[in-house]
Amino acid sequence: MADQTKSVHLYSKPTHYKKELVWNTQKAYSDLINHFIQIMTFDSSYYLDLFNNQKQSPLVRSLEKRERKHHSLGSAFGQNAIDHAVKELHNHFNRIKNKLFGFCTHQQRGILPYVSSIALLNASLLDLDELLILQGLLQKEKGTTEKSKEKEEFYHQLIQEISALSVEQREEKRSEVRTMFYEKLEHWKLPLVKLVPLQLDSRLYTIEKARHIKADFVISVKLLGCKKRVEIPLSTSSSSLRRLAQYPNGSPILCLKGNQVRVSVPFEKKVNLQKTKGVLGVDAGITDLLFTSNGKTYGSFSGMRAFYEEVLEPKLKQRSKIRAKMKQYQKRLKKTSCSSQKEWLRGKISRWAAMLNGEKNLQTCQRKYAHRVEAELGRAIKPFVQDVNKIKMLVAMESLDLSEFDRGKQNNKRDSSWVRGQLLKKTKEQLKWAGIPFVEVDPAYTSQACPICDYIDRANRQGKLFVCTVCKHQADADHNASINIANRALDEKITQVSIQFAYSTKKRHEAIKEIYSERHRSYLESCLLTA
Questions:
Q1: Distance from C-alpha of 71 to C-alpha of 69, rounded to nearest angstrom
Q2: Which of 126, 170, 209, 515 is the most exposed place for a label (fewest CB within 10 A)?
């Protein structure tokens, strides 16, 4: 059983005064999050808590209490703000750690153990004795559970590797890791927030059913500069009302969205995962949105391509031309010293800017395009999930962002509204909600590999047709990819390689290609024996 979370949205059109109160509170809340991010980023004593996402650690809580006197948001907003800051920095620090791990794996550097463990990485940053830290962790992990045994084995392995080094070598490696980490921290953009929604809890709000007014609920919320809570009426759809009544609700978030106040209330549904028989591979494509290994297709993007190329793309090109003209005149304005020429150029720039700002027709087309894409995704995903729910199979999907594949500037731009994980993301959300189990597999070479002889070659794929250049196996290209995805879900060798080189794309692809090469050689040998 697993808990699946979604949200319902409630809206209000408050007075100008209430909108200003919400905006001021959001701005102060966002500034406080950024303030905490700045403090913790440049104080290494917080790093271990950030790596472990320890929002409730004494060090983090003492920082919030110390800074409380410098802001007027109160303890509740202050604690929520520092929780948000810890989450942002936890993700940021993990991205740096993963980058270092991938770099060390690819370069085969001797400092790999120091970036594979949070404890050793933190020891390097603080220049602490890593052996003492590992021995302490080993004592803590003495237990009988499977997880404890795995950690014990991991720490034993690290102690053996590091004990083989001299004191000077260990100091040198800690210094190298420290230098690399701080170099990334200095040059990577910090996760500073702009205007984040207000995270509410029981200390900050109450919500009740509305009485004597045309609204569904009234939320009373604490806002900056108000001694009493501000009441805001909220309305929503009948479907959202049903879900709020049907499932347990969580703590809402409140934000200003355009001229409206939006309150998002999360709700949880307990889902029992289905027992499955067999694996169903699913390929996310362009022409066919979803193509399964049992030969079924769901949805198509062909109509959206035509809309983009015939309607939206010409308007986007026109806007690019206007921007290019503006830049030309702006460059000329900087270079010229003649006052009459400057006045003429300013007039030109002003007219081009007015044309650019007045392109409401383009914005309408973009919204229409985005809406149609969303609708097309829904039309593909809904019947797919219904069919899978009937056949009770484990779904195998690629773990990828299709934008990695360079199909040219125009194609990448056209598909950007959905290609970047939207199709797969929404499909996975619907599968989770329905209690249908799925696995994600490495996407490398699924569209180029032959499922019969395991031969990999770009020439195997010819548009929508797959023809193996060795064994002459023919199939629809998307169907062929879905079969490879289904096979890969149960392929222990490739799964192991994907875990081993999770942060080194080049090494991972090389290892996968070598596995296929070995299997292809075995296929050729078996063909010779049977000939």
A1: 6
A2: 209
pLDDT at 371: 80
Please enumerate in sequence order all residues whose Cβ is within 8 A of that of 252, keeping only pairs 6 or more positions apart, or say none.
Answer: 200, 205, 207, 219, 263, 264, 265, 266
- Entry field: residues in the chain: 531
Structural tokens at position 430: 């619907």
Q: Which amino acid is at 137?
A: L
Residue 261's CB: how many other CB atoms inside 10 A? Answer: 24
Helical segments of 42-145, H only: 47-51, 58-67, 74-107, 112-116, 118-126, 130-140
Distances (CA, A) of 329 to 340, 345, 509: 14, 6, 48
- Strands lying side by side in the sheet with 438-441: 297-300, 288-292, 279-284, 394-398, 438-441
* Cβ neighbours, 10 Å, residue 185: 16
| Kind plus residue range of the DSSP H or E element containing 233 | strand 230-234
Locate the DSSP E strands across 238-287.
253-257, 260-271, 279-284
Contact yes or no for 255/262 (Cβ under 8 A): yes
Range in 141-150, 163-172, 383-392, 444-453 the model is least confident about:
141-150
The single residue listed with the structure tokens 């996968």 is 512
pTM assigned to the model = 0.76
Give CA–CA dist 186/41, Å, rounded. 10
Instruction: Write phi, then psi, for 205 (nearest 5 degrees).
Output: -155, 160
Which CA distances in Å does 449 have to 342, 461, 467?
Answer: 62, 9, 10
The pLDDT, as a whole number, for residue 359 is 60
Q: In what order do the strands lie in the sheet with 217-221?
A: 205-209, 217-221, 230-234
DSSP class of residue 402?
G
Query: pLDDT tens digits, residue range 129-154?
Result: 888 888 888 877 666 666 777 778 88
